[in-house]
Amino acid sequence: MNRFITVVAAGLMATASVAIAGVTEEDLKNDTANTSQVVTNGMGRHLQRFSPLETLNKDNVKNLMPAWAFSLGGEKQRGQETQPLIYDGVMYITGSYSRLYAIDVKSGKEIWQYDARLPEGILPCCDVVNRGAAIYGDNIFFGTLDARIVALNLKTGDVVWNKKIADYKAGYSYTAAPLIVNGLVITGNSGGEFGIVGEVQARDAETGDMVWTRPVIEGHMGTLNGEESTMTGELNATWPGDMWKTGGGATWLGGSYDAETDTIVFGAGNPAPWNSHLRNAGTPTEGNKGDNLYASSRIGMDPATGEIKWHYQTTPREGWDYDGVNEVVAFTDKSGNKRFATADRNGFFYVLNREDGKFVGATPFVKDITWATGIDDTGRPIFDEANRPGNPADTADGKKGEVIFASPSFLGGKNWMPMAFSQKTGNFYVPSNEWGMDIWNEPITYKKGAAYMGAGFTIKPNYTDHIGSLKAVDPDTLEVKWEYKNEAPLWSGVMTTAGGLVFFGTPEGEFIALDDETGEKVWSFQTGSGIVGQPVTWEMDGEQYVSVISGWGGAVPLWGGEIAKKVNYLNQGSLLWTFKLPKRLANAN
Ligand code: CA
Predict the structure, then answer these.
(1) CATH superfamily to which 24-117+128-585 belongs
(2) 413-430 confidence digits (pLDDT tens)
C-alpha cells in the first residue's frame, strides 16, 4: 500500500529519487551508525557487531536492569540462536522450529507470530535452530528447516512469497540469517553431513524470483537470470572422479558484505564425506589434487552476478570436519589497512586483504592444535601427517582406520557463534573452545538423504577447569591479549560497544559484560537457561537497551560426546530478555 503511493509520487516528481517504503539499502548501509535501529545481521553487513553507543559504559553497567522478557511459548524449545532486529518500534526474532515473532519493543508484548508448518522428515543436522532474519522494504525474510525462504509483511506477518532453496529430502535445510544487498536476498544452504552441494543464491526481494546461483564446489555450473553462467572452478582440478557431485561445502552460516570493494563473502563447509582418503586428500599428491576446492574456503563474490572474485582455502585436504564457514568481518586495522578477519573451526585466526582476499597473516587462537604446526607464508597449513585420521583401506578388514586424537574437535576452535570487532580498541573478541576428539575413518558410499560422513568421533575436554574461552585478539600483532575462561563450551555471539563493554552469554545462563581492555567481568545476569543467542544494543527515548535470547541447545548437547554428558544438567528454555539503563541511573555510581 505504501509502496504504491511512493511509486506514484516518484513517477510524478521525475527529479526525485525512487524511494521504497520501509527499510532501504541506505538503512542497511548505515546500520552501525544509526543506533536507533538494528536492521542487519551482525549490526552492519561487515558483521563487526560493534555499537558506537557509549551511554552504557564500564562505570554504570552495574545499573543495567531487566526491562521486559518475552517467552516464545509452546512446547517447542531447544537452541535459540537468533539475533534480534529492531525497526520502527518493533523487535523481530526468529525461534527454533522455524518461527518468527514481532514484538512491541517498548512493552515486550507480542504483535504477531509466524510458524512455518514443517513437513515430516526434515534433516537438520545440528538442532532445530534459526540464526535470524533480514529486513528490506516492507518485508522480513527468513529461512526454514525444510530449506525454504519466506518473505513476510513486517506489519501483519502475512506471507508475501515463499520459495524453495533446495530439496529437504536430500538433506538440505536452512538456518542462517539472509543477507540483503541492492535489493537481492542472498542465502546459502545447510546439509553438509548429507553429501549436498553448497550453493549461494540471490533472489529479487520483491518477487522472490531467482537472479543468480553459485555452487561452491568445482565442476558445478552457476546461473544468471535463468541461464547457465560459468562453471565454478575447473572440473576435476582438485577432486577425483565423480566425488565433486556430492562434495559438500555447505554455505550454512550465510555471508557478509564489504561495501567498499562491493564484495559478498560466503564460507563453504567441509568437503564430503569426512573420510579424506576417499577424496584424494589423505596423502599429499602432485600439485593440489586433493585440495577439494572450494570446500573449507572463504569465497569473495560479485553481489550482482555471483561470479567468484577470489577464494582463500583455510583447510585444503580437509579431514577433520573443519568447515570454512565462519564469518568474515571487514575492518580497518590500526595502521589504516583494509582487512578481513576470520576465526576458523581449525583453530587459526586469519587476516586477509580486503581487495583480493590474499593471505596477510594467521595465528592460533586456541591452544594445542594438532593437525598443523602452523601456517606458511603463502597461507597454506603446514600439516602434521601423523595427526590425520587413518585410511580404513590400510587395515586388515578395511572397516576402521587408525584412531587419532585431534585438536580442536570437529565442533571447532570456534563454531558458528560470531565474534565481534571493537572500533574502539581495534581488537577482535573471539568466542572459542578448548577441546579435542578421538576420530577415525570408515568406508562410506553416498545415498540420498542419509548421513554421508565415513567417520566416527568422541569429543573430549582439553582442560579440566574450562572449555569455553573468550579471547581478545589484536589483528595487527596477531597476539592474544587476554582470555576469559568458562567451564562449559561457549556457543553465543559476542557484541562490543564504544562504552568499552564486551557482551556474551554462557550455557550456564549468565549474560555477561566484560571490560574490553582487561577481560574483567563488570556485570552479569542469570537468564534461567543457557545462552546461545546473539546480543544487540540500541537507543530508544534517550536510553540504551540491550537484548539477548536465552534458550540452551545447538550442536553441543547433540554431538558433544563426553562434553554433552558434562552439560546435560542445563535446562532448556526460550526467553528473550531486554535490559535497559534507566536515565536516572546513567550518571549514578
Ligand atoms: Ca561440517
Answers:
(1) Quinoprotein alcohol dehydrogenase-like superfamily (2.140.10.10)
(2) 999 999 999 999 999 999
